[in-house]
Amino acid sequence: VQLVESGGGLVQPGGSLRLSCLASGFTFSDYVMSWYRQAPGKERELVAVLSSTGGSSYYASFVKGRFTISRDNAKNTVYLQMNNLNSEDTARYLCNAERRPNAYWGQGTQVTVSS
Fold this sequence. Notes:
The structure is a single chain. By secondary structure, this protein is mostly beta strands. Helices cover 0% and strands 54% of the residues. The chain has no helices and eleven strands. The strands form two sheets. Strands 2, 4, 5, 6, 9, 10 and 11 form a seven-stranded mixed β-sheet that branches. The chain has a four-stranded antiparallel β-sheet with strand order 1-3-8-7, with no helix packed on it. The termini are far apart.
């Protein structure tokens, strides 16, 4: 099983990034996919969740209206489009796949928002 995130980097405040998470080793379309983030010295926090079919989503209040989670089950990939980034969005972003009792994590991709 692998979850490999990509798309992170350094971006200026107000900028955008699109993160990707490529999954392998399990039936991607059966799993709920989520993005979490963790900043240095802080607890890991949930950013967004997307149902297995993509028909239902949830967003943390701090990203509503700025981030969009989506998935392409044919490509075994989940995305996180991040717009209007600010310094508080600086963190390592991790991909999670869950279908109880199984849960898988990626290694994450770093997002740094700075001028």
